[in-house]
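From the shared-data thread, chain only:
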Amino acid sequence: MNILLIGYGAIGCHVARALAGGSPAINIGWVLCREGRNEAAAQALGPAITAVNSIDEIGQSLDLAIECGGHAALAQHGPGLLARGIDVITVSNGALADSDLTKALEDAASRGDATLELVAGAIGAIDAIAAASTGSISKLVYRGRKPPASWKGSPAEDVLDLDNLDRPACHFSGTAREAALRYPKNANVAATVALAGNGLDNTQVELIADPAVTGNIHEIELVGDFGEMNLSINGNPLPGNPKSSALTAMSVVAAVRRRLARIRV
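Structure, as tokens:
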């Protein structure tokens, strides 16, 4: 399986290192980066992975692309890869809050007979939510609780004094679609929960800055025909990047390995 990596931040580097020591059937051969960033990509990922600025520079067959570069990267490269028949795994699930991009991705995947796979990322129980959605769901709420520092660089700074917060404070309450569009780097989990369940416009989201927590806490309340579910995950961030969940990177590794498994869970 020849793989292209899109993005080489904390998530991309973890994925590359984890898969490099796994099955010999998995080969991450390339990283797609902007022009002028080839040297930085090579330093981050090592000599075994070739930095390219276009998939046209890849001389051999490409089986899979892994997008770890954010919403803009999925919008820029996703449709073209899918139209060429190349499956794509993405962590930027919140990008699908843009209905025009969703349509472009669906159309491209149809033309290329390819698949866009949204990984569960930092949250669990996506299989249970998806199963519940085959019946009626009366309540689906996602609540994201992070340390104030993890919300820096987001619209939370326009609402809260993150440096001097002494108690939990909610800086966003609305739909999953609104959350994903306003917080493209922080609300991918909200979008994942919504897409698996009640949809982006029928899933309620609360985003909270809490000085008492050290990890990223994700909570789900789900009520439907199946019964009730309450889930809480306290996830560790990736070293060096408080905005990226370790479980997000791990979910990508698991998704790739699952493609090769003869017995899949």
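The two ends are 20 Å apart (CA to CA).
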